Prior knowledge:
Blueprint: H1 6-12, H2 27-41, E1 47-50, E2 56-61, E3 67-74, H3 88-95, H4 107-114, E4 118-124, E5 128-135, H5 139-152, H6 157-176, H7 179-191, H8 205-210, H9 213-223, E6 229-235, H10 239-248, E7 273-280, E8 285-292, H11 303-319, H12 325-331, E9 338-346, E10 353-361, H13 367-384, H14 388-405, H15 409-421, H16 428-437, H17 441-450, E11 457-465, E12 483-485
Amino acid sequence: xxxxxxxxxxxxxxxxxxxxxxxxxxxxxxxxxxxxxxxxxxxxxxxxxxxxxxxxxxxxxxxxxxxxxxxxxxxxxxxxxxxxxxxxxxxxxxxxxxxxxxxxxxxxxxxxxxxxxxxxxxxxxxxxxxxxxxxxxxxxxxxxxxxxxxxxxxxxxxxxxxxxxxxxxxxxxxxxxxxxxxxxxxxxxxxxxxxxxxxxxxxxxxxxxxxxxxxxxxxxxxxxxxxxxxxxxxxxxxxxxxxxxxxxxxxxxxxxxxxxxxxxxxxxxxxxxxxxxxxxxxxxxxxxxxxxxxxxxxxxxxxxxxxxxxxxxxxxxxxxxxxxxxxxxxxxxxxxxxxxxxxxxxxxxxxxxxxxxxxxxxxxxxxxxxxxxxxxxxxxxxxxxxxxxxxxxxxxxxxxxxxxxxxxxxxxxxxxxxxxxxxxxxxxxxxxxxxxxxxxxxxxxxxxxxxxxxxxxxxxxxxxxxxxxxxxxxxxxxxxxxxxxx
Length: 486
């Protein structure tokens, strides 16, 4: 699922936030706009409650239009799977649409549509989510529907038998028929030996072949408990009324213990890793993944948290806007080495963090030349630092994106849910923006010199192979293998 979160999307892939003609502007102007937006939102501040069964309720009033977004977030995803059952979290997301004690297969979606709403779901390494966007007058109805299927998901084996074939086809389309998808899947497996981040969210095909209906039911029984869940609602709502409705629907679900997963900490990497993936493709592709620190605490920043923030800024300097460093140095000009080049700092998640440099070699250039050119850009910043204009530009864009996000009730709900999954407070956006504004050019230069050694690097190279006769070329579009949509 493609999320619309501004700051969290920047965290996942800073290039996604680039504006075609975003001026550098001034931080002071944007800070004033940010302060004005915060002041305007004080009258409709987000509130968080804990229901008697341990489920969380987070409500963000927004009275500008008679609509509401209702989301159910589970702090349960592919991370909770064990060997032999990869893909079961995503399979359960599919089966949640196949019935309950009260509803027949497919009836949930038909009822949401009859209420004038739209709905979907998504699975990630870190979480699973379900949402409906409806007229705010029908909020109580979808809360009752969602609470019912959360507590009483029920379907015949025949529904699973059909749906698992749909999921296998999804895997084929997203991964097995997508050369870059295959590369990224293999790269993750090479990076993580113990941590479940090394497994595909959709699951390995042999695990899907062996999966049973009871595997899915058991995963629901073990993990879909109130203590692992949060209801997030944003839109034209009254907080007290929503709380009453939540207690009457979700609050009636009995509390029960959750399964407890093993830590499965990733051992320290002690040397360069390198893989090649051979697939029918027109162009080579290179992805270089460095292990870096994660952001864990936004209220009392540790040195590791500050380094992770500085890495975000570093990625934005490299690839945060049109004409940023990677594009200027590697893609533009007569001596260009790449057809495309990108940078991402995935430093917010329940598992380990990565900084990834990637690109497509230009005609006549080799993957090794592109790899060297990408590393040279990091080395240059480590030696020379970044200039004030670059730093100002990326910070200004962050501030602007946060202001724009507050125009979207879906964006507000998604942001609140993501931060809850990470154990962060409801004002994490504000805290992160403030912390990012404090990152200096010296901080960026320091992390560029600290976290890009070969011992923390895993390189994946897509080696193009001839296509079988008669096989049509597939588009080499970027894939988001870490979040799957129903």
